[in-house]
Write a structure and sequence with these properties.
The complex is a heterodimer of chains A (205) and B (253). With 205 residues, chain A is mainly beta. Chain A is 6% helix and 31% strand. Chain A contains 2 helices and 11 strands. In chain A, the strands form 2 sheets. In chain A, strands 1, 4, 5, 8, 9 and 10 form a 6-stranded mixed beta sheet that branches. The longest helix of chain A has 7 residues. With 253 residues, chain B is an alpha/beta fold. Helices cover 20% and strands 33% of the residues of chain B. Chain B contains 5 helices and 12 strands. Chain B is globular, with a radius of gyration of 18 Å. The chains are: A mainly beta (205), B alpha/beta (253). Chains A and B meet through loops of A and strand 3, strand 4, strand 6, helix 5 and strand 12 of B.
Chain lengths: 205, 253
């Protein structure tokens, strides 16, 4: 690519000390901005259930209490939103995708892709390879506290190595599928995979 | 909501250089930047562009800005609010001059858009500079779809902070299908007979059509504002799937 033109009068304000942890085009924030396509659903944990599906058949289903009793993991990760903010060192607790698979007696994932389905109709698609080996969890706590509804509570997917829209809020169902299909943003101009380090923001990137 | 097509590989939205044709002061904190893109295949009202600045040492900063101009116009208008301590907005407001080149790519986004297929009525709710993408919708409506009933509820700190005020007032004066309600949260001129204080359920109910009319809502503003308005609308009984939101935070810079 050609060298981008220098913006006359634009001063380099900061190469932050954490620059190596910033994917291209991202900037650091210490806030936790909220982004969603529609209203925040009101979900009571008493009514909440989460399901793991293979095509049309059910592999497992958990109530809130059952889900809370599954093995818990805490991780500290950097998160990257496609709207360009990056937040470092965020602490999450939840159930790893690997542990969910183990719980339903699967040592290997049954299909190569997963669609995440959420309250409010939101979906996002992921290769299973990006969920296993400790790469993803279903998070129920952020910085030690129950996950706030605006941030996806009671439970959201967390796939921190991809842009954050892949970490679907208000998760209710993970469905294995043999072929990849685009989810909500993926069929509305956003990249199908969403690797921040390759700046895969939009379709065609 | 459903998408069954296999993932498509679209051409990359390439960076291009826009030429700054004009800069208009809208309020004390807000300016509109009017650009001539090198190439433009059109956009939908509600879409945004990414802007990229490059310092002479190679340092780059990118931000997204909503398009305020309608697809009918040849030039692109971006409306930018100053973010104190921001990295990009102070440059755009203080340094950028007519004749400068500005790197951009777009248009981007295919959800927070109003297209003919959405039809109407449409109810737009703006908090501060959240008016920008909604203005593109209103300008598009004025040019191409004036028969579609619309309302705008616009929350600003004071009358002086209302962006595009003259244009909005003129638009509403000549149009029986357009309803316009300002909510002034901090200061109101003496004799102000519009809404005082934050947008509340009563103001929304009065200006948002009936459930039977099945309006589509577009809400844009700071995260807390959007959160409050959208939950009020759900409580008023409107279909959550007809409520589209775009939020920006103080980190928008």
């Amino acid at each position: 690519m050609d060298r981008p033109p220098v913006s006359r009068g634009f001063k380099s304000k900061r190469w932050p000390s954490e620059a190596a942890r910033l994917p291209p085009g991202q900037y650091l924030t210490t806030d936790f901005p909220v982004l969603s396509a529609g209203p925040t659903p009101a979900i009571r944990v008493a009514d909440w259930k989460i399901a793991l599906q293979l095509g049309g058949s059910l592999l497992g289903k958990w109530t809130w209490d059952e889900f809370e009793a599954l093995p818990q993991t805490t991780i500290t990760v950097d998160i990257h939103c496609v709207t360009k903010w990056t937040k470092l060192n965020t602490v999450w607790q939840g159930v790893r995708f690997d542990d969910l698979l183990k719980t339903v007696g699967r040592s290997e994932p049954p299909d190569a892709f997963v669609m995440a389905h959420c309250d409010g109709g939101y979906t996002t698609n992921l290769p299973v390879a990006d969920l296993v080996a400790g790469k993803a969890m279903i998070a129920t706590r952020y910085e030690g506290l129950p996950l706030a509804p605006t941030h996806g509570g009671p439970a959201r997917l967390l796939v921190p190595h991809l842009y954050f829209w892949k970490s679907a809020k208000w998760l209710r169902r993970l469905r294995f599928m043999p072929k990849d299909e685009p989810g909500f943003w993926e069929s509305r101009g956003y990249h199908n995979y969403g690797d921040p380090w390759r700046e895969q923001r939009y379709d065609g990137d | 909501m459903t998408a069954t097509d296999a993932p498509s590989q679209q051409p990359k939205i390439e960076w291009q250089t826009g030429l700054v044709k004009a800069i208009v002061a809208e309020t004390s904190r807000v300016k509109s930047i009017i650009l001539q893109p090198a190439r433009w295949s059109g956009h939908w009202p509600g879409q945004h562009v990414d802007i990229r600045l490059t310092a002479d040492d190679g340092y780059q900063a990118e931000r997204s800005y909503s398009i305020a101009s309608p697809p009918e116009e040849r030039l692109l208008t971006l409306t930018v609010e100053r973010v104190e301590d921001g990295e990009v907005s102070p440059y755009l407001l203080d340094e950028l001059r007519v004749g400068d080149a500005l790197e951009l790519r777009g248009p981007i986004g295919r959800f927070f858009i109003w297209s003919r297929t959405c039809g109407g009525p449409i109810c737009l709710v703006a908090g501060g500079t959240g008016i920008t993408p909604l203005m593109a919708m209103l300008r598009h409506r004025r040019s191409s779809l004036p028969h579609i009933p619309a309302s705008l509820i616009y929350s600003a700190r004071s009358l002086a902070d209302v962006v595009y005020r003259d244009e909005l007032d003129t638009m509403a004066r000549g149009d029986r299908n357009l309803r316009l309600a300002y909510a002034l949260t901090r200061e109101h001129p003496s004799g102000w007979n519009g809404h005082r204080g934050r947008v509340n359920a009563a103001l929304l109910a009065e200006n948002s059509f009936t459930r039977e009319q099945n309006p589509t809502f577009f809400i844009c503003g700071p995260a807390g504002f959007v959160e409050g308005i959208s939950s009020m609308l759900v409580k008023l009984g409107f279909n959550p799937l007809a409520i589209r939101t775009e939020r920006f935070g103080p980190t928008g810079a």
